[in-house]
Design goal:
Blueprint: E1 2-10, H1 14-25, E2 30-33, H2 40-43, H3 74-88, E3 92-93, E4 96-104, E5 107-114, E6 119-129, E7 136-137, E8 150-151, E9 164-168, H4 172-184, E10 187-191, H5 206-214, E11 220-221, E12 225-229, E13 233-238, E14 241-246, E15 249-252, E16 256-257, H6 260-265, E17 291-293, H7 308-311, H8 314-327
Parallel strand pairs: 1-2, 1-6, 2-3, 6-17, 8-15, 9-10, 9-15, 10-11
Antiparallel strand pairs: 4-5, 5-6, 7-16, 12-13, 13-14
């Protein structure tokens, strides 16, 4: 089946939704295609996560966001973005993956596959990529990483009660997971290649976990790295030499990155060192004419430069450029 639209937005996270809203408000017929659910990344955040920002900085489409506390939590954010999508009647195709983008400016063809395995083709005059970075975890690249007990996402602590769990990493996600696991009755060990916890760990989390480490309640190995993951143990290189740890589960929380392979296949030129795509700063159009980039993928591997708070602003910039060119 083939459908036509003025613009197709790949990704329905907060930035993708913001792009869809801004385009729609300018009379641009827009379809959003999302390989997961709406705001899929936020859905996969830890169940009890709270944002580090205030509600107004997560708002899109001039729809106010309310929260019971100063900082909104995951559940409130999911409800908010669903409400925004409903309010604007956005045309969102969930659980549909874009496999390939062919054609050229004003005459693109996007080939997709939905959750039932059915194939679709969209004809679009413009394309916006708002694919985020949370879907591609950084890997440890060690033997045994393919074992089922190794996870790159943390949801909640309950399944790990009374088990030996190694948390790899030293930033927010690792610190929060280690604390919640400890509170839930897991035997937690923290392993990080750096000299200590990141200075960017949230201010209300850092003293708590540092005290647990100081008291020996959460053993921590810094300047250390995993050498091999085995079914019931880990081999770890530490400054004092190699050790073996009893282990049931590994949470490798060492960050995520944009899908650079997809961007390359789409014809987006990336800087070799940073993975940063080349874009026009005034319009966010890439070097492939008619293809625009929005959100964190604009920063390449520097994923700490763009968040929901500033990525959501890309929608207006892109929509103004597309609307002006379609009407020219």
């Amino acid at each position: 089946m083939t459908e036509s639209c003025d613009a197709l937005v790949v990704g329905a996270g907060p930035t993708g939704l913001a792009c869809g809203i801004e385009l729609q408000q300018r009379g641009v017929k827009t379809v959003l295609v999302e390989k997961g659910c709406v705001v899929n990344s936020i859905y996969h955040y830890p169940t009890n996560m709270s944002f580090f920002t205030t509600p107004e900085l997560l708002e899109i489409g001039n729809i106010p966001m309310t929260s019971l506390n100063e900082k909104p939590n995951r559940t409130e954010a999911l409800k908010y973005y669903r409400r925004v999508a409903d309010h604007y009647g956005l045309d969102i195709r969930q659980y549909e993956r874009v496999e390939r983008i062919a054609g050229e400016d004003h005459a693109f063809q996007l080939f997709t596959t939905d959750r039932l395995g059915c194939r679709h083709v969209y004809q679009a005059r413009k394309v916006v990529l708002a694919t985020g970075y949370y879907d591609v975890p950084n890997m440890l690249d060690v033997p045994g990483e393919e074992l089922d007990k190794v996870l790159h996402y943390y949801k909640e602590a309950h399944p790990y009660y009374n088990h030996d769990v190694a948390v790899i990493g030293g930033k927010n996600s690792a610190a929060i997971a280690a604390l919640e696991l400890f509170w839930t009755g897991a035997r937690v060990t923290l392993i990080h290649r750096g000299p200590g916890l990141s200075s960017k760990v949230k201010y209300w989390i850092k003293p708590n976990i540092e005290n647990r480490i100081k008291n020996g309640e959460i053993p921590a190995y810094f300047h250390s790295r995993v050498l091999e993951i085995q079914k019931d143990s880990l081999r770890v290189a530490t400054p004092e030499g190699e050790i073996t740890l009893q282990n049931d589960f590994v949470l490798a929380l060492i960050g995520y990155r944009p899908d650079l392979e997809f961007l390359n296949a789409t014809g987006i030129t990336l800087e070799a060192e940073t993975g940063r795509p080349r874009t026009n700063p005034d319009t966010l159009e890439s070097e492939r004419a008619g293809v625009y980039l929005a959100g964190v993928i604009v920063a390449g591997m520097h994923t700490n430069e763009i968040f929901i708070e500033n990525g959501r602003l890309h929608g207006r910039l892109i929509a103004e450029a597309i609307a002006s060119r379609l009407s020219a």
